Amino acid sequence: MKRRGFLVVLSGPSGAGKNTLLNAVLPRIPDLKYSVSATTRPPRPGERDGVDYFFLDDAAFDAMIARDEFLEWAEFAGYRYGTPRRFVEECLAQGYVVITDVDIQGARQIKEKMPDGVFVFLLPPSMEELQRRLESRGTESAEAISRRLKIALEEVAAIVDYDYWILNNHLEEACEQLVSIIRAERARVCRTDFSTLPLKGE
Length: 202
Hints:
The protein is built from seven helices and eleven strands. It is α/β, with parallel strands linked by helices. The chain has one domain: Rossmann fold. β6 and β7 form a beta hairpin.
């Protein structure tokens, strides 16, 4: 019995805990793979090409855009980031579940190209908790945090475009919910090839 792979797209405001949740979920599902993004950003110490990112120069990134080889891409802080279509499609063809985390604009781009994906929105417990998490990072000014909170409100309004939502109040509970969603989607009849099952009558 062969299972068909599918793509899980996780979105949510900055500070909702997407990376923490992904790191908790990945070891729990053997056939779950994280989608490696491409970027024009230089590698940081310890980062490996093809593992952390596919590191590209601007010309190579432009060429991939021209060939429609990204499921989505965007620019952030002067560098471009994108989800390579080929990497995802190869993993899906091998039966893997591929998971990626992108913002709502990226999710919309992916949905246009892969409408059969599973789209999950991660919510923070409250705006107050989201503000606390952003402040605890100690990496941004009060003005920058205020902008992020404003953007977060706009992003939450897009939750109606998603298939599932998870409230990230407790990491373990959020992790269990995401695992349950993936397992339920994995068990859908449309994602399974039953032609090899020995269930035919005499």
